[in-house]
Amino acid sequence: MFGIDDIYWVLINSVVSFIYLFIISKLLGKKQIAQLEFIDYAVGISLGSIAAEWATKTDAPFYYYLIAMSIYFLLAYLVAIIGRKTTFLKRIMKGKPSTLIYEGKIIYENLNKCKIDVNDLLSMLREKDYFDIGDVAYAIFEPSGDISVLPKGNQKPVVIEDLTAKPKVEEPSLMNVIVVDGAISKSGLDEINRDKSWLFRSLKLKSKKDLKNILLATYDDKDGTFDVHYKKD
Q1: How far apart are CA 205 and CA 208, in angstroms?
Q2: Taking phi first (over 0 means left), then psi (-120 to 50 degrees means alpha), and beta for anything else, what does residue 129 get?
Q3: For 26-42, what is each residue's pLDDT tens digit?
């Protein structure tokens, strides 16, 4: 059971740990959540966990927690300094960007290295307002966990020079995903009123092994074209 003295200690420890955590966060510098790299995230979680334990534990000396938080702070600060000075060590500790889409084609090996599947990639592209993978020329997965996208020429944002020409307005439409990671999307085929036999004929698939080699296949119902990405060419 907590006594009145324990309650006072919890109150005091909570305030002191909050202040100390605030000071450390200021010293480490400001970053938006999307800009946090894995090491920053891990350090933040660890510091918060130590501060929370400090606030509620009354049987351990307070300087234990001060020392632990200070060590985490110094290590994080050291990593930041080394990262600014040495590119090689920065790549080891913080990682490096990975190209997921190159010249309009998905790089399957890099997807595996980043532990990302096709649905994750499509979701990240939609968050960047690219609902059709055919509009993307390059996509780079950053160490922060965010994705940077360079669209194809006809999908780039409008600039002043473009305003002299009359734009051709087309009705937007979602791409029809018909194969994802070697599996046929039944809902995708139903959407375009096609069946499995049509898919095999259209993509010239001879067996299920050929199907398994397809990472992603989409179909444009307007002009009847496919956009196919293979695991191995």
Answers
A1: 8
A2: left
A3: 676 655 444 556 667 77
Reported as type and span, the H/E element at residue 217 is strand 214-220
Q: DSSP letter string over 66-118?
A: HHHHHHHHHHHHHHHHHHHH-HHHHHHHH---EEEEETTEE-HHHHHHTT--H
Mean local confidence (pLDDT), 8-28: 72
**Whether the Cβ atoms of residue 31 and residue 40 lie closer than 8 Å to each other:** yes
Task: State residue 84 phi and psi, 5-degree precision.
Answer: -75, -30
In angstroms and rounded to an integer, the radius of gyration of the C-alpha atoms of the chain is: 26
Here the tokens at position 64 are 């234990």
DSSP 8-state class, residue 206: -
Structure tokens at 46: 């660890």
List the Cα angle 19/43/112 in 5-degree steps.
155
The 10s digit of each residue's pLDDT in 101-145 is 998 899 999 999 888 889 999 999 999 999 888 889 999 998 777
- The bridge status of strand 214-220 relative to strand 176-180 is antiparallel
At CA 226, angle to CA 221 and CA 231, rounded to 5?
145
What does pTM read for this prediction?
Answer: 0.59
What is the predicted pLDDT for the residue at 19? 77
pLDDT of residue 200: 93
Q: How far apart are CA 51 and CA 128, in angstroms?
A: 36
